[in-house]
Each structure stands twice: as C-alpha cells, then as structure tokens.
C-alpha cells in the first residue's frame, strides 16, 4: 500500500485535483518552440525539471514526458539540421515538427483527462 506524500495530502486537504496550469504552459512552450527556434522549449524543459516530483504520480509522468520530448526533439532537429546539407533535411525537419505537435497534443489530451500520457518511454508518439 502506498503512503501518500505530503503534497498528495495537501491536494486532498484542498478538496480538489492538482492544478494542471503549469504542465499546460510547458506543452504550449514546447509548441511555441517551433516558431522561436527552440528558445521556449528550453524554458519549458527547465520548468519541467523544476516541478517534477512535486505532484501526484500521473502529473509527474507528464513532466517526464515533457523532458523526454525536449531531448528527443533536440536530437531530431539536430539531425535534420545536418541533413539540410543534402536537401532531405527539410523533409526530416517537417517530420520532426509533426512529431512534436502530435506528442504535445497527446500529452494535453491525457492531461485534460487527468491521467498520465501513454507510452512515456517511446521515441515516437
């Protein structure tokens, strides 16, 4: 049997579910990173690192998902940047953008349903 953490007790004492505003902001910053060249994604990953471990397990899984999304996206976009030298990088960059959007939408959907995202450890969606 799991013992509730102090934060779980505070949430229970407040009589509600944990605030999901911050994870929503992190997902939005990841999406804005498409336009800002990744600057807002960098802010998002710092926020996810700071706030992980401070909520219920399903919410912590969102932060873990967001952190993994940042590092995998960094790899995908770096490879795409290198591949632009042989023209195919533009297609892989587009695929990386689609991948990022799908991952963020899936995360937001799971967050809205107050559950952990599916397949947190996957490299795909």
Automatic annotation (TrEMBL):
UniProt subcellular location: Membrane
Transmembrane segments: 24-51, 72-102
Entries under InterPro entries matching the protein: MamF_MmsF
Key words, A-Z: Membrane, Transmembrane, Transmembrane helix
Membrane topology, as annotated: Multi-pass membrane protein
Keyword Transmembrane: yes
Name the record gives this protein: Putative membrane protein
Naturally occurring in which organism (per UniProt): Halomonas cerina
């Amino acid at each position: 049997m799991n013992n509730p953490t102090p934060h779980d007790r505070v949430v229970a004492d407040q009589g509600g579910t944990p605030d999901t505003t911050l994870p929503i902001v992190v997902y939005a910053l990841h999406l804005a990173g498409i336009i800002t060249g990744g600057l807002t994604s960098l802010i998002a990953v710092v926020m996810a690192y700071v706030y992980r471990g401070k909520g219920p397990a399903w919410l912590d899984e969102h932060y873990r998902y967001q952190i993994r999304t940042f590092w995998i996206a960094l790899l995908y976009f770096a490879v795409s940047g290198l591949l632009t030298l042989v023209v195919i990088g533009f297609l892989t960059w587009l695929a990386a953008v689609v991948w990022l959007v799908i991952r963020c939408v899936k995360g937001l959907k799971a967050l809205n349903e107050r559950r952990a995202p599916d397949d947190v450890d996957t490299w795909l969606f």
